[in-house]
Amino acid sequence: MSVILAIDAAWTESEPSGVAVVISSGKRWRCVALAPSYEAFLSLSNGSDVDWNAPRFNGGTPQVNSLLDAASRLGGAHIDLVTIDMPVATVKITGRRKADDCISKEYGGRGCGTHTPSSMRPGKIGKYITEQFEAAGYSIATKTELPGRTMRLVEVYPHPALLTLLGSEYRIPYKVAKSLRYWPKTTTVQRIEKLLNEFQTIIGTLARIFGPIPLRLPQAVEVPSLATLKRYEDAIDALLCAWVGICYLEGKAIAFGDETSSIWCPLEKSQRH
Hints:
By secondary structure, the chain is α/β, with parallel strands linked by helices. It is built from 8 helices and 8 strands; from the N terminus they run βββααβααββααααββ. Strands 1, 2, 3, 4, 5, 6, 7 and 8 form an 8-stranded mixed β-sheet that branches.
């Protein structure tokens, strides 16, 4: 049995972060926990259900040991791997890394270039998370070693992972904040409908890997505002991080970067032997 803790980590303390736990049983994987914030995830581990219709979800700095303990309770075993959608490195991050340049070179033509990290974003919260996982025994996985090793902190970038998952040639339009750029001259209601369609496609594909996923998407008429869809986007990104973790453990992932930091992406079918 293997257990993966997957985090779609916000780069600031003001925004919530999606969290998922997936476990293996034989060759099958399933999602045993999914939450749109650290607070909701910890409550989930204590027996409370996630209220996906809550007015808002809080951000904050994660207490790494509490997250690991909660994930162990939900997964029923020690955490083998942590995957995270946040820049992490063995050195201080002050600007663009080789990992970011490598990803942009490989996937930029397909609309999946990376954001540039800085000393401010993710800044001290990124440094804190990295150091806390290191202290807990999870060292950063870089291209200096082959995939498959446990007790690692694996950096993930969901956009290129989605290309492989869905077999798409170009970036999937599922980011709430970019919806007007995706679909100019549309109404808010129309953009909500389009985003929900994208979410459903992604979740439906992930369900082939994890089985039933503990998340019910709302109908468009149930959505009070475009911004409230962000919680579902964060949950999806956490699930994508979990899937890349599976690829990593199975030796079906490749690292882009150097000895200080690497972004791991699933191998596309043409790259697999």
